[in-house]
Amino acid sequence: MRTEEEQVEALKRWWQENGKTLLLTLAVALALVFGWRTWQDRQAADAANASALYQNLVQSVTLALGAEGTDAQVATAEHLATSLKTEHEDSAYAALGSLLMARVAVEQGQLDEALAELEWVLSHEPGDAQRIVATLRKAQVLGEQGQAADALKLLDALDPGSFEASYQELRGDLLLGEGKAAEARDAYRLAAEAAEATGVRPLLTMKLENLTAEEG
Predict the structure, then answer these.
(1) Helices (DSSP H) in the chain: which residue ranges?
(2) CA-CA distance, 41 to 201, in Å (whole number)?
(3) Residue extent(s) of CATH 1.25.40 domains in the chain
(4) Eight-class DSSP state of 109
(5) Which pTM does this prediction carry?
(6) Which of 111, 63, 56, 113 is nearest to 84 (CA)?
(7) What is the pLDDT of residues 134-154, one digit of tens each?
């Protein structure tokens, strides 16, 4: 049986052989833990900042598009949207901000600017919902620019998912603009069927009834 002195000597030898490796391993483990926590804290702070910027942008856009909207309010919205894109480029809030600014541009008749905002969203690998919404709005803007054929090609390549009603209604609008009343009516009917689960769309109903009456 080992004496106490022998055990101490054995422990010293083990420490001399393995102590540095053990300390290094512990240091690396601690660095990883603290690094991970720091990264999580930074991500949470970035998300909170992006959310606050977006909420301010929503308020600014609401004011800018109101009856008493001013150029200064539009400029404020543009500044906030730019901050979102430069400081939080990969966040969903930046994409939402660009979608809002595309709406502002359309309201002001600046269709090229609207397309630029929508292209920004699409070029930053958005989630499925944002990608579909951005594509639908891009097709709508193209239609307003007199490029209905290009807009329809864009829609043909899109799987609208849960946005089927909006997708088919927009197809109907574009087809009608191309003078294809029968195809437009079919698209409106598909839109109405898809919209049954989400409630009546008065404008869609009116479009369908008008074409049906003309057919009769």
Answers:
(1) 4-64, 71-87, 92-107, 111-122, 128-144, 148-156, 164-177, 181-195, 202-215
(2) 44
(3) 146-216
(4) T
(5) 0.78
(6) 56
(7) 999 999 999 999 999 999 999
